């Protein structure tokens, strides 16, 4: 019954406990694929009679939805929350009238299978010092962000948040710049003015093929 | 026998934008609206009159791929292509909204050779006005 549905091994090992010490754990596991959108967060470890705690893994679809929702909430928090903005960009407190020296974006969110740990990938646009200031500011406000997230989202257990700097956008941009430069050099060596229009089209098509390699570095939340 | 009627009505209305090749704009403003599902890049002059625009959807992406940073980059390149040929050197960038397009479009603009003079964030912020839509339940 539940054995065939549950992929993680701890559950299959603990299944005898679950069936003997109350069938509620097993029954929840059966209901999960059908009514996952109404069930509350099943990431809490359920105490089984012998004292061994069973970790329920939420199903993949729900993990993705939670990740997307966390990304939305955190992006919104970066835009509206004053405390976070001062942490990321200290000169905003001086009333810099929104003339930014660095721009922070949440480029991706990864949630662990049991919805307990969240890795937030942050990409900062700006010079080196601005980047350090932004990442350090975010890391210092991790606990505050966690409590804010708990207030905004209805989760049984608010996950622990870790901020990681994401360099994939920067890397992709560098590679594309190098490719553009190579194309310009190749076209200018041919020495024809009419041909300048063509590389703009061909560089886009080549860019599509090259971006597939960088896509693996960039985390898309679909 | 019938003489062709010259169409000068468009010029009389004061819509100067129809004379596209005549304008030389050394400095302009690039607006980037980056939502979660799409990115729209609009190039205007200093007063706000639109010169050209492109979005991730018009750059050949459909569906969920419009929200990706690569699509934002392609949209930015498409939007400023016409303007770079007209000789725009400096630009101010106004960014609106959350979304991956913020970063990617900025990087694409910087890479294209246009000098970024300022980067501003103009996300509309109500002073507690309209009621926001209801919370999404996850």
UniProtKB/TrEMBL annotation, chain A:
<dbReference type="GO" id="GO:0009507">
    <property type="term" value="C:chloroplast"/>
</dbReference>
<dbReference type="InterPro" id="IPR015946">
    <property type="entry name" value="KH_dom-like_a/b"/>
</dbReference>
<dbReference type="InterPro" id="IPR023799">
    <property type="entry name" value="RbfA_dom_sf"/>
</dbReference>
<dbReference type="GO" id="GO:0006364">
    <property type="term" value="P:rRNA processing"/>
</dbReference>
<feature type="compositionally biased region" description="Basic and acidic residues">
    <location>
        <begin position="186"/>
        <end position="196"/>
    </location>
</feature>
<protein>
    <recommendedName>
        <fullName>Ribosome-binding factor A</fullName>
    </recommendedName>
</protein>
<feature type="compositionally biased region" description="Acidic residues">
    <location>
        <begin position="203"/>
        <end position="222"/>
    </location>
</feature>
<dbReference type="InterPro" id="IPR000238">
    <property type="entry name" value="RbfA"/>
</dbReference>
<dbReference type="GO" id="GO:0042254">
    <property type="term" value="P:ribosome biogenesis"/>
</dbReference>
<feature type="region of interest" description="Disordered">
    <location>
        <begin position="186"/>
        <end position="222"/>
    </location>
</feature>
<dbReference type="Pfam" id="PF02033">
    <property type="entry name" value="RBFA"/>
</dbReference>
<dbReference type="InterPro" id="IPR020053">
    <property type="entry name" value="Ribosome-bd_factorA_CS"/>
</dbReference>
<dbReference type="GO" id="GO:0043024">
    <property type="term" value="F:ribosomal small subunit binding"/>
</dbReference>
From TrEMBL, chain B:
<dbReference type="Pfam" id="PF00411">
    <property type="entry name" value="Ribosomal_S11"/>
</dbReference>
<dbReference type="GO" id="GO:1990904">
    <property type="term" value="C:ribonucleoprotein complex"/>
</dbReference>
<keyword id="KW-0934">Plastid</keyword>
<comment type="subunit">
    <text>Part of the 30S ribosomal subunit.</text>
</comment>
<dbReference type="InterPro" id="IPR001971">
    <property type="entry name" value="Ribosomal_uS11"/>
</dbReference>
<keyword id="KW-0699">rRNA-binding</keyword>
<dbReference type="GO" id="GO:0006412">
    <property type="term" value="P:translation"/>
</dbReference>
<dbReference type="GO" id="GO:0009507">
    <property type="term" value="C:chloroplast"/>
</dbReference>
<dbReference type="GO" id="GO:0003735">
    <property type="term" value="F:structural constituent of ribosome"/>
</dbReference>
<feature type="compositionally biased region" description="Basic residues">
    <location>
        <begin position="9"/>
        <end position="24"/>
    </location>
</feature>
<dbReference type="GO" id="GO:0005840">
    <property type="term" value="C:ribosome"/>
</dbReference>
<dbReference type="InterPro" id="IPR036967">
    <property type="entry name" value="Ribosomal_uS11_sf"/>
</dbReference>
<feature type="region of interest" description="Disordered">
    <location>
        <begin position="1"/>
        <end position="24"/>
    </location>
</feature>
<keyword id="KW-0687">Ribonucleoprotein</keyword>
<dbReference type="InterPro" id="IPR019981">
    <property type="entry name" value="Ribosomal_uS11_bac-type"/>
</dbReference>
<keyword id="KW-0694">RNA-binding</keyword>
<keyword id="KW-0689">Ribosomal protein</keyword>
<protein>
    <recommendedName>
        <fullName>Small ribosomal subunit protein uS11c</fullName>
    </recommendedName>
</protein>
<dbReference type="InterPro" id="IPR018102">
    <property type="entry name" value="Ribosomal_uS11_CS"/>
</dbReference>
<dbReference type="GO" id="GO:0019843">
    <property type="term" value="F:rRNA binding"/>
</dbReference>
<keyword id="KW-0150">Chloroplast</keyword>
<comment type="similarity">
    <text>Belongs to the universal ribosomal protein uS11 family.</text>
</comment>
